[in-house]
Amino acid sequence: MSEARASVVSDDGMRPSPGGELQMDVALGLEGLRKTFGEKVAVERVDLAVPAGSFFGLVGPNGAGKTTTLSMATGLLRPDAGRVTVRGTDLWADPVTAKSLLGVLPDGVRLFDRLTGLQLVVHAGMLHRLPRTTARERAEALLRALDLEADANTFVADYSAGMTKKIALACALVHAPRLLVLDEPFEAVDPVSAASIRAILADYVGTGGTVVVSSHVMDLVERMCDHVAVLAAGRVLAAGTVDEVRGGASLEDRFVELVGGRRSGEGLEWLHSS
Ligand SMILES: Nc1ncnc2c1ncn2[C@@H]1O[C@H](COP(=O)(O)OP(=O)(O)OP(=O)(O)O)[C@@H](O)[C@H]1O
């Protein structure tokens, strides 16, 4: 945490209001977000306040609405209702200002894969108005940190799934945003690279950045994040610090309890080999 920030914001993202009482410094605010696709209600109503300086995990079962929520939160998908603020700026009213503060790793969005990895990250930096030389220096440093240096001049179209994830992450980081929103950043990534990414993100949060990350790996969220929200059927079932949400149990047990029990293998007896 920077000294300037430490003087006004405590570890749990609170700062004194003019009246003296503590109020949360919100990096990302979601208010009444809703999205339907035809008859399908993907996000029913999501209200979340992500404290500045937090490492915030978003978890939920398949189809819970995580990607839809994060897409609305980052300007990729227009909500049917609700409001998104990035550091107090209304994302949908002033997208240019809000998006300049955001780094986004979307789920499954196509990249310009006829560029090499290095070209793609330089391009992402220049889109955020970095001078070419700065964008190139940063891109090279990111490729080194993410163990992609040897493939800097390979076309992204020829990258593996994990390499593609890492180059997309480099694109999200290159302009040094205040807030990072990462949809499943560890999916398909090898353990050594995952450890490097975790270290980069921990350092980023430690120096005042905010990270929102969706994941299915409860153990990872429990170890890595300080805040978490559990989403199911397009609604927030629980949100707070990781300790508040898990309430003495493991996050995985609490998740199963909140979301509903495991299905048995009933009806699959034909799979038994004997
Ligand atoms: N473009 C779309 N058209 C129709 N239905 C959609 C669309 N996008 C998402 N949905 C539906 O909305 C619901 C929420 O999907 P979403 O991808 O947000 O879930 P998720 O929590 O990210 O799931 P997962 O963990 O499996 O990635 C699902 O029922 C999905 O089928």
TrEMBL record:
<protein>
    <submittedName>
        <fullName>ABC transporter ATP-binding protein</fullName>
    </submittedName>
</protein>
<feature type="domain" description="ABC transporter">
    <location>
        <begin position="28"/>
        <end position="258"/>
    </location>
</feature>
<dbReference type="InterPro" id="IPR003593">
    <property type="entry name" value="AAA+_ATPase"/>
</dbReference>
<keyword id="KW-0046">Antibiotic resistance</keyword>
<dbReference type="InterPro" id="IPR003439">
    <property type="entry name" value="ABC_transporter-like_ATP-bd"/>
</dbReference>
<dbReference type="InterPro" id="IPR050763">
    <property type="entry name" value="ABC_transporter_ATP-binding"/>
</dbReference>
<dbReference type="GO" id="GO:0005524">
    <property type="term" value="F:ATP binding"/>
</dbReference>
<keyword id="KW-0067">ATP-binding</keyword>
<keyword id="KW-0813">Transport</keyword>
<dbReference type="Pfam" id="PF00005">
    <property type="entry name" value="ABC_tran"/>
</dbReference>
<keyword id="KW-0547">Nucleotide-binding</keyword>
<feature type="region of interest" description="Disordered">
    <location>
        <begin position="1"/>
        <end position="21"/>
    </location>
</feature>
<dbReference type="InterPro" id="IPR027417">
    <property type="entry name" value="P-loop_NTPase"/>
</dbReference>
